[in-house]
Design goal:
- By secondary structure, this protein is an alpha+beta fold.
- The protein has two domains: 6-182, Immunoglobulin-like, CATH 2.60.40; 192-358, no CATH class.
- The protein is 19% helix and 31% strand.
- It is built from six helices and 15 strands.
- The protein has helices at 209-224, 261-272, 301-304, 316-329, 333-336, 339-358, and strands at residues 6-11, 39-40, 45-52, 54-63, 68-77, 95-105, 108-119, 124-126, 138-147, 154-164, 168-182, 192-196, 228-232, 248-249, 256-257.
- A hairpin with a 4-residue loop joins strand 2 and strand 3 (45-52).
Length: 360
């Protein structure tokens, strides 16, 4: 007789193998389906604790040796219904559900582990039709729970319902112990997500409103999870990304920013916080960001740096020789750049400072 489907839970940071339900950290959790740091199978209860303005999370694993279709996961018992939720959670509630998307371990074709989290929309199938894991018997759902600013300290209860049409249904109790403290909206410690040149999407082009919306969406995900996206708007080759460096006119001490329009459209919502108005840390601006200043902007390094070298370096030996000669012969940096370079740099830095101050 086929074994009935079952549901169990695991802590948020563990990695579940979708083929057999084992853990990458199996040695530390030998009986993980029965009990672990968040789960008690005897009462089908998940127990969590956290501060106000904090996210707590766990993984809900749906396991079946037989194929299941039309699996629905819902949170009918609203957690923190008496509290004021951020605007982004007004429709969905405090519980957010994400399907775990699996990728193979490069070292073993038998090992697959979760990577991306895809918001649950509609029903799930086991095995998944679009994430073809050979022999999949487990589909975990990542459960993210936001504890509102005004949640009362103490125990709050809710439930999750897992069902597959009329074939099968299971209810999971969720208990969240709210601690008598609150995480501040402004970060005391910055987790800086360094990002080179920008975010990627074949459908959007740098310097367009579509691209600005895309990059802002990435900023919002980082902000939601108490981190800071930091996009470096230039490259090692000396190029700059449109919008990250405003257009300039004039030379030397007469250099001026020709227009702040695109730069303000890109960075204004991040610096004033309006991009985050509906998030838990509402209207708190980014903690830090790269400005476009580097050796090749606002002035041309190759044209302004006074060190003779061949225009084309064609061999590794030539490269090593010029690096050595530069280290031995180059003068102080303030003497190696032209006055025009220094004046242009100073003037654009001054205008950035004045512009940022004028915009608050």
């Amino acid at each position: 007789m086929p074994q009935a489907p079952r549901v169990w839970a695991a802590p948020d940071l563990l990695k579940i193998n979708p083929r057999n339900g084992s853990l990458l950290e199996q040695a530390d959790f030998p009986e993980h389906r029965a009990w672990n740091g968040v789960w008690d199978a005897s009462s089908a209860t998940v127990k969590l604790s956290g501060a106000r303005n904090e996210f707590v999370a766990f993984q809900l694993a749906i396991e079946s040796a037989q194929p299941l279709s039309g699996i629905q996961v819902s949170a009918p018992g609203a957690l923190f219904a008496e509290s004021r939720l951020p605007e982004i959670f007004r429709n969905s509630g405090a519980v957010q559900l994400y399907r775990e998307w699996f990728v193979p371990d490069e070292k073993s074709s038998n090992q697959w582990y979760p990577d991306a989290l895809v918001p649950v929309s509609g029903t799930l199938d086991l095995p998944a039709r679009d994430n073809a894991v050979p022999g999949q018997t487990v589909q975990p759902v990542f459960v993210d729970i936001y504890i509102p600013h005004d949640a009362a300290p103490g125990l709050h209860t809710g439930r999750l319902l897992v069902e597959a049409g009329s074939q099968w249904k299971q209810e999971i109790a969720v208990e969240v112990e709210v601690l008598p403290l609150r995480l501040p909206d402004k970060l005391n410690f910055t987790v800086d997500l360094n990002c080179y040149s920008g975010v990627r999407d074949p459908g959007s082009k740098y310097g367009t409103p579509e691209y600005r919306r895309l990059e802002q969406a990435y900023h919002r995900v980082a902000h939601l999870h108490r981190t800071n996206l930091d996009v470096l708007g230039y490259s090692h080759t000396g190029t700059t990304v449109p919008d990250h460096a405003p257009p300039l006119e004039g030379e030397g001490a007469e250099t001026r920013v020709a227009s702040w329009k695109d730069w303000d459209a890109h960075f204004g919502p991040l610096l004033e916080g309006s991009a985050f108005a509906d998030l838990p840390r509402a209207r708190v601006p980014v903690t830090d960001m790269y400005l476009p200043f580097f050796e090749n902007w606002p002035s041309d390094l190759r044209r302004s740096y006074k060190f003779e070298h061949p225009p084309v370096i064609s061999t590794d030996q030539q490269y090593r020789e010029i690096i050595t000669r530069h280290a031995l012969e180059a003068g102080p940096i303030e003497e190696m750049f032209s006055q025009e370079y220094q004046d242009r740099y100073s003037m654009v830095v001054r205008q950035f400072a004045e512009h940022l101050k004028s915009r608050g």
